[in-house]
């Protein structure tokens, strides 16, 4: 009798696991059943704002592999619109509800992959069924918002609540759709993933394209007229709104896992080892936005929900389930985004995180340009480095600038991953040509400045 694997969650981590396991074991050796509560599998949630804005014309462009492809090419029994409601580890069974047809199914497993992702943070005031209020966590969410915008000629005033990645990206998307946009952030800055001095550059750019940014403002409720949202109530002034988009962040989707007795770590994510096995629970694996992982710089457990990590973790789990050997080495917090025409990148620790981890450090900010100053299209770029005071080791980096800015963070991420010092970095042999960089690349300028700061 073939071994049976049940996959809970049909996006990046779950289907990467299933595909990798299938490449190593055929259907006579391993039967795979995947449950997905939405309509789509293996899609790019990060691409949703660009489809909403119209930059990506077709929703299907965001789908890497649809359910039919998984069935036909990988012999995976994908059951969309099925939500797993319970996991019984003693009986080795899952219970799933058919969201369209009704009824429940109970399926046995020998191996379980828990890849339920993350769920949006939703305060009590946001738990409303009034029309015009949307989240953008899943492609189903994005579809509902896009259909609303296409069908409703009326909505002209949008309020985005939350200034993280999804908030600023959705603010830009709605500006491109021609809406008047207000972004409300409870903290003192949008983009809290970078330090305040770098976030100010993001704020200026967003205001430059007409986004009304209100920081230090707490939302306390939504107002309604005829069943539709009409405004956002805050602890200062009410804000009129025809459309409200929630971008308050996410947390690991672990309610089902916790109820089944799977161990959670301090971040709220599921505890796994380097091979993506759930700690202390034989035959159960987890990957993606529902797990916590190790930060390679701070040494602390972190929850970093990104499709890059989910795919890598799923690949590692699938190789191991398939009989091979692979490990996930952790993360360093590298991320990039585009805010209007401004590019933002970060890797490693922010100042606050470096302090919390107990490091003594210096910080430098270097101003440069993306190309040789005389070359057409040269624009400013700001690079910030954080280096350990005694060793000179790079601890973190942030970049804000125009074209060619964001991907430079990859150079810094490789340096950080390999524990390079800023002195080591000054000798890096980086590419140079006037259309692409000054003779001293901005990364090298910042590294030299950090070396000088350490010497002082």
TrEMBL record:
InterPro entries: FAD-bd_OxRdtase, FAD/NAD-bd_sf, FAD/NAD-binding_dom, FAD/NAD-linked_Rdtase_dimer_sf, Pyr_nucl-diS_OxRdtase_dimer
Cell inner membrane as UniProt keyword: no
The entry's keywords: FAD, Flavoprotein, Oxidoreductase, Redox-active center
Residues covered by the Pyridine nucleotide-disulphide oxidoreductase dimerisation domain: 336-438
FAD/NAD(P)-binding domain span: 4-298
GO MF annotation, one: oxidoreductase activity
One Pfam family here: Pyr_redox_2
Top-level taxonomic group: Bacteria
Keyword Flavoprotein: yes
Cofactor(s) of this protein: FAD
PANTHER family named in the record: NAD(P)H SULFUR OXIDOREDUCTASE (COA-DEPENDENT), PYRIDINE NUCLEOTIDE-DISULFIDE OXIDOREDUCTASE DOMAIN-CONTAINING
Family: Belongs to the class-III pyridine nucleotide-disulfide oxidoreductase family.
The name this protein goes by in its record: Flavoprotein oxidoreductase
Source species of the chain: Micromonospora sonchi
